[in-house]
Amino acid sequence: MEIMDLPGEFEVNVSKNDILKDSKIIENPGIKSEFRNITQTVENVVISPVQTIVTINHQASQQSSNAYGNRYKDPNIEHLPITRQYKVYDANGNELNCFSARNKNTLIYSDGTREDYDRHDIPNKKYSNATWETVSYLLIENTDTDYIKIVPEETVRNPIEGQENTGGEIYYEMEPLIINIK
Hints:
The chain is mostly beta strands. It is built from one helix and twelve strands, in the order αββββββββββββ. Strands 1, 2, 3, 4, 7, 8 and 9 form a seven-stranded antiparallel β-sheet that branches. The protein is globular and about 60 Å long. The two termini are about 25 Å apart.
């Protein structure tokens, strides 16, 4: 994308109500991607004249303070996983520009109590059978195709499909979240 300066002054009036009036809003479309104990769920989609905004709820169940920093005995459980990035494609396979942001992490204890953490913090208390939740907001360039495909790239520590355990992180592309936008 090339940016160029234009001489002169411009006045742009933007109204949230005007944009929402011309937007398509999809609430709880029931689109999920699952891997091990990780679930990514599309909560809502706003297709506006300016961009497409997608809210994704990322949850990792079976969290325990005893396992942090160590591997579980069960390789199908990831501890405090994070999504490294989201890759977004249109129906023709062209990659779309995407900016993702998250503002906090939430630890949901087994009794339902919720505790929020700054996006760079991790829990330092004792807990078990908890859920680690992060909500991400994706700002995606618009496309004129019928759907978009969002591929979450998850950071995991346990080996995948026989890969050698190097003690480091593995970037794993989860099943795509496909959203019909027309």
